[in-house]
Amino acid sequence: MDAARKGEAALSASNYDEAIQHFTDAIKSNPAAVKYYIGRATAYQRVKKYAEALADSEIAVVLAHKRATRELIKDAQFRRAQQLYFLERYADADYILEIVKKLDEKEKTLPIWTSKVAKKLQEIPEEDEKRKVTAKDVPEVEAPSASQVTAAAKKIETAPAAAPKPVVPTPANKIKDDWYQSNDTVTVNILAKGAPKDSVTVDFDKDSLSVSFPVEGSAAEYHFDIDPLYAPIDPVASTFRVTPNKVEITMKKVSQGVKWKALEGNRQVEGTEGSQSAIPQHILTGKSVQDSAPAYPTSSKSGAKNWDKLAAEDLDEKDEIEGDETNHFFKKLYSGATPEQQRAMMKSYQESGGTVLSTDWSNVGSKTVVPEPPEGMEAKKY
């Protein structure tokens, strides 16, 4: 890939400094290429170097006129008008946009820029210098030679890089947190800028999480504690990392596929006494509940059904597994599901007359599952 193509790729990937360098290399090899100057002007514009972008745009206009190519003249002038706008030369920008309109009145974004410039002109007084047109149709600039381009490039390369701005630590009382989950993990983000990487302590326990670190620039120390967690985690498989903007903690679920409704639970953990678990015990232990399980809405004339009990019934009976491969597939699917998924399968299948099979208890547990017959068929009540 040549320098120009690398520049276009970097521009598309929003790597603007890299794009500037690639377009500069391309201009070295061909100082008369209009598109290279337009490309570099675009990259300069994205990093808010509007004076440099204007200089490239004006060179592009001159070169495009020398080639007498209407499309290139329009593109160069349009880029030029944008830089004039950013440099607050609104009358000049308006003047150049009129040139663009004459070249191609169907330019897609022309109305947007015309409106932006008109709004700015309305906001400034008549005597303001920004209302005076000083721009010419063709700028009085000369395209640089190859040696001039090389010298300018070396000047850019040898210029000292600006020192990165130091990260200002977030005050302890301003630190926030959020969390999200997948089927396998729960991720907690402590939104603290400048957390000292070597001083962040994260303690994982099966049923709890503890985070602490000193806040630089103050005597305060930040603490984040959850005990108990909504469900058990695997401390060994849980990890964390510290970035300039946050502390990211990833906890591995013991019961994969179980959806957490909150970070903190209300359950009794091993070795403690407290209130009853907020998570159904069969999810934590893998055992199905019995007659004490709650009843859920149903349209059955015989009353509410205990779906936990139905889900625990033995499916090895002949009338359940004998038949075609479809029955065997569903039996295999059922045997590999969690107790909660089994309960959802039983409820959705029975209430829908065999037309719906769901493993999402949170979706079907609190409502009656309506039959969804195949297209061209209809459900009948018996």
TrEMBL record:
Residues 295-382 form the SGS domain. InterPro entries: CS_dom (IPR007052), HSP20-like_chaperone (IPR008978), SGS_dom (IPR007699), Sgt1-like (IPR044563), TPR-like_helical_dom_sf (IPR011990). Residues 172-264 form the CS domain. Gene3D superfamilies: 2.60.40.790, Tetratricopeptide repeat domain. Residues 349-366 have a biased composition (Polar residues). Residues 340-382 are annotated as: Disordered. It comes from the Eukaryota. GO terms for molecular function: protein-folding chaperone binding. Belongs to the SGT1 family. This is SGS-domain-containing protein.
